[in-house]
Amino acid sequence: xxxxxxxxxxxxxxxxxxxxxxxxxxxxxxxxxxxxxxxxxxxxxxxxxxxxxxxxxxxxxxxxxxxxxxxxxxxxxxxxxxxxxxxxxxxxxxxxxxxxxxxxxxxxxxxxxxxxxxxxxxxxxxxxxxxxxxxxxxxxxxxxxxxxxxxxxxxxxxxxxxxxxxxxxxxxxxxxxxxxxxxxxxxxxxxxxxxxxxxxxxxxxxxxxxxxxxxxxxxxxxxxxxxxxxxxxxxxxxxxxxxxxxxxxxxxxxxxxxxxxxxxxxxxxxxxxxxxxxxxxxxxxxxxxxxxxxxxxxxxxxxxxxxxxxxxxxxxxxxxxxxxxxxxxxxxxxxxxxxxxxxxxxxxxxxxxxxxxxxxxxxxxxxxxxxxxxxxxxxxxxxxxxxxxxxxxxxxxxxxxxxxxxxxxxxxxxxxxxxxxxxxxxxxxxxxxxxxxxxxxxxxxxxxxxxxxxxxxxxxxxxxxxxxxxxxxxxxxxxxxxxxxxxxxxxxxxxxxxxxxxxxxxxxxxxxxxxxxxxxxxxxxxxxxxxxxxxxxxxxxxxxxxxxxxxxxxxxxxxxxxxxxxxxxxxxxxxxxxxxxxxxxxxxxxxxxxxxxxxxxxxxxxxxxxxxxxxxxxxxxxxxxx
Length: 626
Prior knowledge:
Helix content is 42%, strand content 25%.
C-alpha cells in the first residue's frame, strides 16, 4: 500500500472517529390545584353525577322525558365554578379503558384522561417480552389550563362517557360546574400507529380568563430498554424537535443528557429510542418548547427519561375551545414514517445531504427489493455488498492498479532509498521519485483520491445498519441479532471498555490486517521514519482501532465491512495477476530512460516542484541569516 493510500485510510478513520464526537433552567412547576373541601355532600354530588351519566346512557328515552319535565320547573342557578366537583374528582379512583387495532394496544386511564400504556404489536424486546413504549405511571401526559386557577388534568379523575365512545374512540370528561367541562377524546386510527386527540373546553368561556391565550402541555415519559447493547441503544436514542418547514429536526441526546428551550413555533417532538419513537404533533404548532433528556443507569430496565414542556394557543373568551393533537407510537421505519408527510422519517439518522440521498434512493430501495425475494438478511447484505462493489469498481480499479504499478517499481525505489539515506536529502529523494513516477505513467494520487471518493458510500453504510429496523432481531450464522453485537465471548467485568468480543468485528479487523499485509509485502519504507510509522499504523493500529469501534456496534455492519475487505482482496489479486503487468511497466521506464526525453509533467507534479523550489529558497535564506 502506497503512502497516499495510507493517508486515505487515516483520513477515513479520522472522519469515522468524528462521528463518536448537560441543565438550564426548567420553568417553574405549574401551580397544583386541589380543592380543600372535604364534605360528604360534595363526594355524594360527584358520585350522583357519575351515576346519572351512566343511567342516561342506558335509558335515553327516560332521560329525555325527565329533561322535559324538569324544563317546566324553575331550578336554582348552579354555581359557575364548582370546588366540590373538582375536589371529589381529585380523590376518585381511575378506570382503565383499552383501545386496540392491528398494530397497537393502547390503555387509557381516566385518572388524568391520558394514555396509561402503549404496546407495539408484532415486536418484542431483546428478552422476548412484549414491547411497550409507555408503561404504567412512569409516564404522564398532562394539560394545564387556568380556569380561573391552574387546573392540571393529571390531578383529577375524569368520567368515562360510554355513549360517546366506541371500539376505536374513548371520551372522558371533567365537570367544571354550570354544565361546563373539559373533554379528552382519543381515537385510535385503524391499521395504524396513530392516535388522534381532541382536547376540548366546553361551556367554559366564563371560567377561562380572557387574558389567558394558551394552555400548558407536560409530556413526561420513561422509555424502557428494548435492545441488547446498552451503549449502542443509548448512542442512537435521543429527543427530536421539529420546527415547521425545517430541513431536519434538531435533537439532544445520543447517549448524553441535555436540555433545550425555545420560544419558536414547534410542529412536533419525538422521544426516539434506537428503533421506536413516541411522537406528539400539534397541527396548529406548539408556541413554546422546553426539552430535557437523561439516560438511566445501565443495570436497570429503563433506558431514558424524557420530558417536554410545551404551550399551545387557545382562543381567549371562547365558550367552546378545541385543541387537536396527533400521536405516533411505533417503529422507526423510513417508508412508514414518510407516508405521514410530516417529516417524521427525518428522525432516522441516514447522514447528511449527499450521504442521505444515496441511502434513501439507493440503499433502502435495494434493501427493500431484495427482501421481497430473500428471507435471509445475511444473504441480502452479501448481495448488497457485491452490488456496491460493482458500482464503485471504476474508482477502485484506479486505486488498485496504481498500487500495483508502484509495487512493480520496487527495484527502482530501493535504489532511490539507498541513494538518499539521509533525512536532509528527503527533498531530492522526493523529486527523483516523482521523475520515476512520470516515466512509469503512475499518478501519486491514484491510490488516495479514488479511496476518498468511496467515503460517502462507506459512511452511508455506517449510518444505515445501526438504524435499520429491518435488521432488528434478524439472525445470521452465529449472530442472533444483526442490529446488535454478536458476543461469542462475554464476561462480566469491563476491560478497556469491553465486556465481550464480537466475532464479526474480530474477523473484520483480521481481514484489514491481512489486506494491509498483502499490499505492503512488496513495499519498502527505506530509511523514512514517517513511512515506517504509516506502515505500522496501517498494518496494526487501524485494524485494532476498527475492532474497538465496531465491537459494540451492529454485527451487520461488521459483517458488511468483512465482506467488503474480502472482495477488495479478490479484486486486488485479479488486477495484479492478470491486468497490471510489472514487466510492461519496467519496460516503459527503461524506454523513457533510453530516449533521454523528459516525461510530461502533470499539473499536480508541477505544483509539487514549485513548492519544493520555494522550500529550497527559504532554506537558503535561513542559511544566509546564520
